[in-house]
């Protein structure tokens, strides 16, 4: 059963003023913001909170039949899970919300702005195939900071006609603008650590993330219109198929009507311990198989990256759309648009 705030606070959440009461002063049974003793029996059920303002403190784990056991609709403020498990969190039409100290299997944000997901532990259900562990869609100015994101993929092969259990992607960006993804540890996904979808090409910052055991790539995008004015810096990708794979696929274009890859900067990134020695460390290709639509590619800078000296160098096409900023470590070959220093 789902209830709307403030009644939902009777079950599992309380506003900061009430939560700060001394344990020696038991809450009034009629209080709208703190559970009575009788209410504790149902405290852990799933719920929906509508138009919250202020701080919510989770008092114990939540569980129920809904994968997103806690839903927030509208409102703002803060959610502090205090280390408790909520199964999953779904926020929609929220503007100005910080979520921290939560354990969960998945997080989704839709049509929301100024949402900060920080210092949480997300671990996908290893028994299920899931599209993403974290998803931001149709919003703007959101932040994913210092989280641990585990897709729970254990290297299983793709079954015939299907997908392995665990997370497809660690973080999915779907038509979300001005997103900052920084300082996260992303692990064990059978596709990409971070993947972009949709028709928007607004700036994205992807900085200082540690991505490991991503079957396809650390950073990907082939069902999207591209990237513009974005910063990809100081990231480490290891034990993965590639550092980045970015191109266009017409098989599922999600409304894409143009291609833009302009004014992006890739700097101080590292790719190590590749899972395939015969695959380029980076493949950004907007020439091969690009659909007939407006294409704008230019001024994309690569500098001071270490892509490894024992695997094929980055493939960047069209070559004129990329700027060699120097000091890139990679294995030099005639197919690369970069002058490698190793």
Report what the structure shows.
The protein is built from 1 helix and 32 strands. With 342 residues, it is mostly beta strands. The chain has a domain at 105-324: Pectate Lyase C-like (3 Solenoid), CATH 2.160.20. It is globular, with a radius of gyration of 22 Å. The model is unreliable at 1-42 (pLDDT under 50).
List the helices and strands and how they pair.
Blueprint: E1 13-15, H1 16-19, E2 47-52, E3 55-58, E4 70-75, E5 77-80, E6 88-92, E7 95-100, E8 103-104, E9 106-110, E10 113-118, E11 121-123, E12 129-137, E13 143-145, E14 148-150, E15 166-174, E16 179-182, E17 185-198, E18 204-207, E19 210-214, E20 217-224, E21 226-228, E22 231-233, E23 236-238, E24 244-247, E25 259-262, E26 265-267, E27 270-272, E28 282-285, E29 295-298, E30 300-303, E31 315-317, E32 322-324
Parallel strand pairs: 2-4, 3-5, 4-6, 5-7, 6-9, 7-10, 8-11, 9-12, 10-13, 11-14, 12-15, 13-16, 14-17, 15-17, 16-18, 17-19, 17-20, 18-22, 19-23, 20-24, 21-25, 22-26, 23-27, 24-28, 25-29, 26-30, 28-31, 30-32
Antiparallel strand pairs: 1-3
- Structural class by SSE content: mainly beta
Shape: globular
CATH overall fold name of the domain at 105-324: Pectate Lyase C-like
The Cα radius of gyration reads 22 Å
What is the architecture of the domain at 105-324 at the second tier of CATH?
3 Solenoid
What is the strand content?
A: 35-45%
Tally of contiguous helical segments = 1
Portion of residues within helices? under 10%
Number of strands: 32
CATH uppermost class of the domain at 105-324: Mainly Beta
Distance between the termini: 61 Å
Residue-averaged pLDDT, rounded? 85
Largest sheet: 17 strands, parallel
């Amino acid at each position: 059963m789902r209830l709307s705030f403030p009644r939902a606070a009777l079950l599992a959440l309380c506003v900061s003023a009430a939560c700060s009461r001394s344990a020696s002063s038991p809450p009034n049974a009629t209080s709208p913001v703190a559970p009575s003793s009788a209410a504790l029996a149902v405290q852990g059920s799933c719920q929906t909170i509508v138009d919250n303002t202020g701080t919510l403190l989770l008092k114990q784990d939540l569980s129920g039949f809904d994968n997103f056991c806690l839903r927030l609709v509208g409102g703002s403020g803060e959610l502090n899970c205090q280390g408790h498990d909520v199964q999953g969190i779904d926020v929609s039409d929220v503007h100005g919300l910080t979520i921290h100290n939560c354990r969960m299997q998945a997080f989704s944000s839709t049509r929301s702005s100024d949402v900060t997901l920080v210092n949480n532990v997300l671990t996908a259900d290893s028994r299920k195939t899931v599209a993403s562990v974290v998803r931001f869609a149709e919003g703007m100015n959101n932040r994913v900071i210092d989280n641990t994101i585990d897709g729970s993929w254990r290297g299983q092969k793709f079954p015939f006609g299907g997908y392995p259990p665990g997370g497809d992607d660690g973080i999915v960006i779907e038509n979300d603008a001005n997103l900052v993804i920084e300082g996260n540890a992303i692990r064990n996904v059978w596709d990409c650590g971070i993947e972009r979808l949709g028709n928007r090409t607004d700036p994205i910052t992807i900085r200082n993330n540690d991505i490991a055991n991503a079957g396809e790539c650390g950073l990907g995008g082939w069902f999207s219109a591209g990237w513009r004015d974005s910063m990809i810096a100081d990231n480490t990708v290891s034990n993965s198929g590639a550092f980045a794979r970015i191109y266009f696929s017409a098989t599922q274009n999600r409304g894409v009507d143009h291609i833009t890859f302009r004014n992006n900067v890739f700097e101080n990134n590292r790719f190590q311990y590749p899972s395939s020695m015969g695959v380029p460390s980076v493949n950004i290709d907007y020439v091969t198989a690009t659909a007939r639509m407006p294409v704008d590619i230019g001024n994309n800078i690569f500098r001071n990256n270490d892509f490894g000296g024992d695997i094929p160098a980055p493939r960047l096409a069209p070559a004129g759309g990329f700027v060699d900023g120097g000091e890139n470590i990679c294995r030099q070959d005639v197919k690369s648009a970069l002058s490698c220093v190793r």
